């Protein structure tokens, strides 16, 4: 499936990038930006970002089930991604951060 037609990125490309990224000793959160940079690509219109996030979530689960990434790393990554998504939703809705979310944002 094509995820980004501007840069010709497929779900398989994202899966391969996730394998490389998540098997690094200090793996970053695999956001679309991290994944695209890993593939040496750039988002152009950014219309693919929501689909890229969905594909990242789905591929994390697939890779975990196949035993290709550590389930603890996958869980930790999903938790961090969900926190980031919630922060974005709160910012769009102008909802103030909870104390825990604010600490997380300041720690980054």
From TrEMBL:
InterPro entries linked: BFD-like_2Fe2S-bd_dom_sf
Superkingdom classification of source: Bacteria
Name listed for the protein in its UniProt record: (2Fe-2S)-binding protein
Organism encoding this protein: Hyphomicrobium nitrativorans NL23
């Amino acid at each position: 499936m094509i995820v980004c037609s501007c840069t010709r990125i497929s779900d398989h490309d994202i899966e391969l990038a996730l394998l490389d990224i998540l098997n690094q000793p200090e793996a970053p959160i695999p956001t679309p930006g991290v994944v695209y940079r890993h593939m040496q690509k750039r988002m152009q219109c950014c219309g693919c970002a929501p689909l890229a996030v969905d594909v990242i979530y789905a591929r994390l689960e697939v890779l975990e089930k196949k035993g290709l990434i550590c389930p603890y790393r996958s869980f930790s990554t999903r938790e961090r991604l969900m926190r980031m998504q919630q922060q974005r939703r709160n910012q769009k809705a102008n909802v103030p951060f909870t104390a825990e979310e604010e600490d997380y944002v300041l720690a980054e």
